[in-house]
Amino acid sequence: MAPLGDVFSKLPEAINELVAEFSSAPVAGDLNTGLTQYSFWLLVAAVVFCLIMAVFVKRLTLVPHGLFVNGVEYVIDYVTNDVAKGVVGEQWRRHFPFLLTLFMFIFINNVIGLIPGMKPGTGAIGCTAALALCSFVYFVYRGCQKHGFFGYWKSLAPAGVMFPMNVFVWVIEVFSLILRPITLAIRLFCNMFAGHIVMGSFALMAALFTEPLLEQLTAMNAVTALPSVAWLAILLIIYVVEMIVAFVQAYVFTILTAVYIQIAEADEH
Which among 109, 124, 210, 240 is least buried, having the fewest CB atoms inside 10 angstroms? Predict the structure, then answer.
């Protein structure tokens, strides 16, 4: 059982190296002012998004043809009907470009992170915080545009509530408003970061159990490597799940933004 003992003895160090691999590291410059690996892949996702939309617009015809065009068309229809029209309501057209861009950009980031050797831009809290800040600025701006700057902030306290209770409610509403981008950023970051750590852990387990067999072909090492089959099977299942999560998290982020837009523009706001 020596090979099995060797595998478990290497596990703590390997896990630490795995977690360190997913920590932000500078690609150019330093960690404070330079370009980190997550920022780099965020920029890559932005380029990929622009290329996808450029090719889509170029190939778009009255009757869509091809898997690529139909696929993008399906995503656009989905965001139009389930997010923009379904949540925002009558004024959905003015917000549709922002919501579609948000959904596509986050989804592309998440998918890029599933490609071996790449990282999701959404796997760093700084990147998700920037996305959440864009969402926050957008729906607050739309609220101020609809009700006026002072009218929007004043309306956070519901009408009909007497002083001093209305001040207390206003403070709670402002605090709740500030929490929205924080929860958006943390939710997206935690789901993407945790998912990749889990996938990396199972890949690491498979590699550690197979390593003795690769170093020396013996019956004992072959038995030790058998659990790798189970680790790889679980890894494949988790990979499929993460593909679904990539879509779901983009959807959740976008639909919550749509809800906040609808609340900001509501007449009774």
Answer: 240
